[in-house]
Design goal:
Blueprint lengths: L3 E2 L5 H10 L6 H11 L13 H10 E2 L4 E7 L5 E6 L5 E8 L4 E4 L3 E3 L14 E4 L2 H18 L6 E4 L9 H12 L11 E5 L3 H10 L4 E5 L5 H7 L2 H4 L2 H15 L3 E7 L7 H12 L3 E7 L13 H11 L5 E4 L23
Parallel strand pairs: 1-2, 6-9, 9-10, 10-11, 11-12, 12-13, 13-14
Antiparallel strand pairs: 3-4, 4-5, 5-6, 7-8
Bound molecules: iron/sulfur cluster.
Iron/sulfur cluster binds next to loops.
């Protein structure tokens, strides 16, 4: 029988498991401490657990399902891991360190179904959702790495790796809860961000299911023609529908929303688009995150020059909302936004 992922059990379920093996319920709390605080993956090293429980855990459960296929280190300190699942698929997770932060860009799916034209992950198509255990194991994995490196921990988690997180909504919501829980990884709610391509019904579901975490919407186009040419999702839910959902999200959660906007030469990074984007952002409680295009598969899509970006920014800065520009991290190892992809094996 396949082993179940112990990271996917909440405190109550861990307590139930302990009781089923004839142990007191508080063993569940001890197990959680070993996994989330001590980052232990070997049941035999969980020294305060009785032998019988350790044997039962070894027979039925695991905390360690991923195998490192590769790790690449960028000149700017960004690190990218390719991790292999037990069923032989590979996905990526990216650590982005700064002076004060250790941000981890996690994947929620292997591949992605959304088909955004500027994104390398789209070339993989959709393979499968990651399980709750596999999502949390990325954080455990990198925390173990950091512990050996300099004793630090992942401080921020962003669901901007492979996949559309709201297509794996329940696992992502449970993962956010475990990331935040005091007896989980203990990461503040405002340091956990989920990024969606704009699946309207799921944004509303997310607002009710997980209202306390940060949400970012990849807008990327300031009108329907532009956005549909980059993001097929816009043909299903256009900008008007998306902005209605954004407003409802803000109303339900009381949170400020982030709109991500990719800057592409002669496409999205033109003055007319800046004016349209300013109008969109001025009407709601939001901030804009500008992301200059990173090198992808499509030679037609080029990054703008610094002058073009500054001209675009100067129009936006006339608005009464916050505008940030994301500096590319790890482009030399294809770890920056829109660059994650695992080449698929060719079928003979
Ligand atoms: S940008 Fe995000 S939603 Fe779009 S294809 Fe890439 S991973 Fe999927």
């Amino acid at each position: 029988m396949p082993k179940f992922h112990l990271l996917s059990l909440g405190l109550d379920a861990l307590g139930d498991f302990a009781v089923e093996t004839g142990e007191p319920r508080y063993r569940g709390r001890q197990l959680r401490e070993w996994m989330f605080r001590h980052l232990e993956t070997d049941f035999r090293r969980m020294s305060n657990l009785p032998q019988k429980l350790v044997e039962s855990l070894e027979e039925k459960a695991t905390v360690s399902t991923l195998r490192e296929r590769s790790r690449q280190d960028s000149v700017d300190g960004t690190r990218k891991w390719a991790l292999e699942t037990q069923d032989g698929h590979v996905f990526e997770t990216v650590l982005i360190p700064t002076e004060s932060r250790r941000s981890l860009c996690v994947s929620s799916q292997i591949g992605c179904a959304m088909g955004c034209t500027f994104c390398r992950t789209a070339t993989m198509g959709f393979i499968r959702n990651l399980t709750l255990g596999e999502i949390l194991e990325q954080v455990l994995w990198v925390n173990r790495f950091l512990q050996d490196l300099d004793g630090s921990r992942v401080s921020n988690v962003i669901f901007m790796g492979m996949g559309e997180p709201l297509h794996n909504l329940e696992n992502v919501a449970l993962a956010c809860e475990a990331l935040n829980a005091e007896n989980g990884f203990g990461i503040g709610k405002d340091r956990i961000t989920v990024s969606t391509s704009g699946i309207v019904p799921k944004i509303l579901e997310w607002a009710r299911r997980a209202p306390n975490f940060k949400l970012a919407i990849s807008l990327n186009g300031s009108n329907d023609t532009l956005r549909s040419s980059l993001m097929p999702v816009n043909r299903r839910w256009n900008i008007e529908a998306l902005l209605d959902a954004a407003d409802e999200y803000i109303q339900i959660t009381g949170q400020k929303l982030t709109f991500e906007y990719i800057l592409i030469r002669n496409r999205t990074c033109v003055p007319e688009a800046a004016v349209e984007l300013k109008r969109i952002a001025s009407q709601r409680n939001c901030k804009i995150n500008l992301i200059p295009l990173n090198r992808g598969e499509d030679p037609e899509l080029q990054a703008p020059s610094e002058e073009e970006i500054q001209a675009f920014e100067s129009i936006l800065r006339q608005g009464d909302f916050e505008v940030l520009r994301r500096r590319p991290r790890g482009p030399d190892i294809l770890a920056a936004c829109g660059q994650l992809a695992i080449p698929l094996k060719k079928v003979a």
